[in-house]
Structure formats: structure tokens, C-alpha cells
Known about the structure:
The chain is α+β, with helices and mostly antiparallel strands and 145 residues long.
Amino acid sequence: xxxxxxxxxxxxxxxxxxxxxxxxxxxxxxxxxxxxxxxxxxxxxxxxxxxxxxxxxxxxxxxxxxxxxxxxxxxxxxxxxxxxxxxxxxxxxxxxxxxxxxxxxxxxxxxxxxxxxxxxxxxxxxxxxxxxxxxxxxxxxxxxx
Length: 145
């Protein structure tokens, strides 16, 4: 697997992944139209496409504030359960540390999202306790390293 920076050519696929019902449920996002969708990129953000065997299998969004980088990811629904999330987390963590000079990373995972919690645990992240996500839902704050 490798991570490649997203381009404008990826915008439609990113919009589809972003609007996936499971992704929206765990990220507390509303459905948006393609016209309203914008790729957020810049000095403190990175959108990376996960490529596995020449197939785009998901994306990672990295958002850095100070020395901490928040990671958010989505695995394509056709590839969920294939173990790709753990590899994506590991590669995304490495990218943030090397290319964005992050000192640590954080992810907020809904307590009922067992597959994501397992993937982060398997990628050697640690449980930083539960927090409210600001929308009335409890999340596990995962921390790396």
C-alpha cells in the first residue's frame, strides 16, 4: 500500500467516500451535494489517497494544529474488513510525522465503532480515554505515539 496526495481528479471519489452512510454516521456529518463539496488542502492539512494494488481503497485526512495532527480516514465500503485500515493508519501516522512535522497524532473514534478502535489499537495507538465529541456522542481519544 502507498499513500498519494489527492488531486482535483479525486474530488468525485472523495465526495462519494465522504457521503458514505457509515462514514457520515461515525463522523456526525450530514449529506452534502457535490457542488457544496470542496477539497480542504493547505499548509496544515493533507488529503491522501490509499492505493493498494493500483486500486484506490480509501482516504486519509490529516489536520495539524500546533504540534498535534488529527487523523481521519475512510476505507472504501467494498474493502472494509480486509485489514487495510491498520495499514492506512500506520502510513498516515508516518506521513504526518515526517512531512508535517507532527510531534503526536490524535483520532476521535466513536465508542461503538469497534472496527476502527481495533485498527488503531493494532497500529499501536493508545487509548487516551473517552471524551464528548461536542455533538453529544462519546468518543475514544486515540493517541500516537
